Amino acid sequence: MKIQKRYFPFVVFSLLALLAAMWAGLLRMGWSLPPYPNLANAHGPLMVCGFLGTLIPLERAVAIRKKWMFTAPALTATGWVFLLARPGFLGAILFTLGSLVTFAILLFMIIREPKTHTLVMAAGGFSWIVGNILWMMGMPIFQMVFFWMGFLVLTIAGERLELSRVLRPSTMQVGIFGLFVALILIGESAAILNLDIGTRLSGAGLLGLGSWFLANDIARRNLRHPAPLTRYIAHSLFAGFLWLIVGGGLMLAIGAQYAGPFYDAVLHIIFVGFVMSMIFGHAPIIFPAIFQVQINFQPAFYIHLILLHVSLLVRIIGDLASLQSVRQWGGLFNEVAILLFLGMTGYSIWKGLKR
Questions:
Q1: How many CB atoms are closer than 10 A to CB 146?
Q2: Which stretches of the chain are assigned E, i.e. beta strand?
Q3: Is 194 helix (H, G, I), strand (E, B) or coil?
Q4: Does the pTM of the predicted model rise above 0.70?
């Protein structure tokens, strides 16, 4: 089997952004590492816009195969480089342009298939645009991060709704799903005027959406699937849904947070517990689509999956108990889990090629 190499540069730049974001994360946690100007402050933008903001539109562009669509990952991949090399507006401008092209891709999808799942993904793309613009205007990340959160959560939500169509959810079930999506959108908008109300509304939407997934997503049916790869994907997704419920519940209960341990806990429950678990689960689908090669399942996949969730639990305990060293070690092993995931994914692709 021959691997498709022409998309390598996009994936490489996406993964380099992830590595830079991880380095920044360790610096922010207090680990002694070689510093780089502006790196620690760029942790969130690198992860959301540099890493995922390159990978998500790349996946869409590869699937649809329209040349103009590759402008989106090209802009965001360039954006994070300028963000670090020349701190200022240029990186943010490139991210914003990339999000605009991504939204155009999503509108193209709506025209081709005007369904609930494409509308939800487009709402996520629009959230990314608004978040990037607010960031450029100087709004603090603790206030506009709900738009970045909405981008990722709604993108994933739309994808999961699409894949769950085989279960034929009822009109009422889809309506309830739409209600939770609306709460997330209203919450991120309300946070501009009142952070506490916006946080609680967003939290209610995330809590509801996670509960909806537990009850209705096809992952629940696949937890005991005979195929080991399908079963692994289902376990990854199911764990992510649980974290989404926990994160949404905390946001609903505690309201506005500007910094500190609760702020750290909530953000990483969503961005690591939910989003990264979704990435672990979707990687065996995404990378074969991009590289035109099958993933060779390895039982060792469960090592990085379990380590991610156990280390996140340790990190959250450290946050909530104000134990800095516990938080640091939990965060460090979060990143070890991600590195193991990258290594195992690369190895499984290589094994697939050998077959």
A1: 29
A2: none
A3: coil
A4: yes
